[in-house]
Amino acid sequence: MYLLNREQRHVINYTWMIISLLLVAFLPFLLFLGLYLKSVxxxxxxxxxxxxxxxxxxxxxGQFGFYPFIVGSVWVTLVAMLITAPVCLLxxxxxxxxxxxxxxxxxxxxxxxxxxxxxxxxxxxGILVIVxxxxxxLGPWMGVSTMGYSILAASFVLSIMIIPFVxxxxxxxxxxxxxxxKEATLSLGATEWQTIKNVLLKKALxxxxxxxxxxxxxxxxxxxxxxxxxxxxxxxxxxxxxxxYTLPALIANNYGEMLSxxxxxxxxxxxxxxxxxxSLFFNLVMHFFIVRYNKY
Amino acid sequence: MTRAQKTEEKFFKLLMIIATYFIFAVLALIIxxxxxxxxxxxxxxxxxxxxxxxxxxGKEGGILxxxxxxxxxxxxxxxxxxxxxxxxALYLNxxxxxxxxxxxxxxxxxDLVWGIPSIVYGAFGFSLMIFFxxxxxxxxxxxxxxxxxxxxxxxSMDEILRTVPIGLQEAAYSLGSNKSEIAFKIFTRQSISGxxxxxxxxxxxxxxxxxxxxxTAGYTDHxxxxxxxxxxxxxxxxFFQLSxxxxxxxxxxxxxxxxxxxxxxxVSLFSRGIGKRYHKTKINF
Lengths: 296, 285
Hints:
The complex is a heterodimer.
Chain A lengths: L5 H40 L2 H6 L3 E2 L4 E2 L2 H32 L2 H16 L2 H24 L8 H26 L2 H9 L4 H30 L2 H6 L17 H8 L9 H32 L1
Antiparallel strand pairs in A: 1-2
Helix pairs in contact in A: 1-11, 3-6, 3-8, 4-6, 5-6, 6-8, 7-8, 8-11, 10-11
Chain B lengths: L2 H39 L2 H5 L15 H32 L4 H16 L2 H14 L6 H24 L4 H9 L4 H12 L1 H17 L2 H4 L19 H9 L4 H31 L8
Helix pairs in contact in B: 1-12, 3-6, 3-8, 3-9, 3-11, 4-6, 5-6, 6-9, 9-12, 11-12
């Protein structure tokens, strides 16, 4: 029936497992090393602080200042979190504490669909709905003239994109809190909202911080959707209605011409390295928050 | 309870209800605007033809190249990620079951890798391609997307495999099975529905991602032929057609977005259905 005997099959399966495991375990280091080796050319000629804090971006004359892109990325991410954080927190509390089971049952497919929609489609939706809304209604209403392609448009699209990640973690966290804790507080005469405010939120705090941190890391690296609505202007933004430029958009927009200008490809790989470092850092820190949360 | 406390409770409950409906409303709005724009623009010719001459100025043609390209790329990457991912997930749950610390470290590494943005994978794939002097091709795209979906594949299979009861493993040992038999014959069979769900989830990720294939898969107006040729993908076709100033071409972007969204919705529907169906064959303790 089999070509090989049991022992031989075991050895083959085992080797296959070990090779795959090693490949996967070394992947983050491999990524880091690969990108570092490519950007070392740039790091050799410029100091790290120069690259990060210099404001001029003129690759053709050898000036690589990443500051506008970093500032753009930070703005877009933070404004997105300002929208996502309260919406997700309130929804998570509502569906886990107040409503019947069936709301949670329809929430899960909704989260799945939101998570499944590709970022290009989010970008398309941003161009169709959000950008005209900002340029025709919100901008004039606030008394600013704007093209619509702006930090705010990118943040709004981004905030919807990270809702599924953040909400999923938050729902898990609130469901993991033992029912007895809530019952004990209620039996002492506290109202439902007092219980949530003074007991549940305090207990869940490390978990909530971790959920927001994971969302932040996601948002920071999001490429296509942001690229499509942020405006792509290399300039320091003064308000959320200004267009901006983000690090991932910088990489995606310039891949075509990067081989024609010296050190340009190295600069773009440095941008990717920055993104990787930020993502790893955030995930590392948030992981410890989650570990701390699980210990309680 | 004072009046102020009551108002506070009511106020926050109202906010919660608004937040919950906001999420549903936004989801409905996204689906509605994609369908509304897409259905107007879609046609039979779009699905069955490749771009003809002058396609990008609004002339005849379709996006068959991108549809087939995306499907073959996502299929290749999913198969490859499965071949690498399944043994890792099994190894964690069968061989390392007594070494909790090691499992934790590997799971942690996988979660780290999961969080890395896809553009970083794209840039990494591109630098590898330059190093090996490769052109943009289907193969380069598949390899890059494989790296990108690998953590998703492993972690979602792992979540299912870790629910297999230890008693099943002990029973198999007592009947004389060795570890790899337990892994490939018992664990895979017991968790088949979860494994299929993991595969479909990864497929959905692979087909929808644009940033990882932007540098590596290239773009072409021809049907995919051969692993070493560049290949068109749906997300990129949406992106490129949308940046055109010609309204007809923009309309095609809406149609392409509808096709992509439909593929992903169907895949996610399937994965839900399969999860329910295979539940019956499971041994329950």
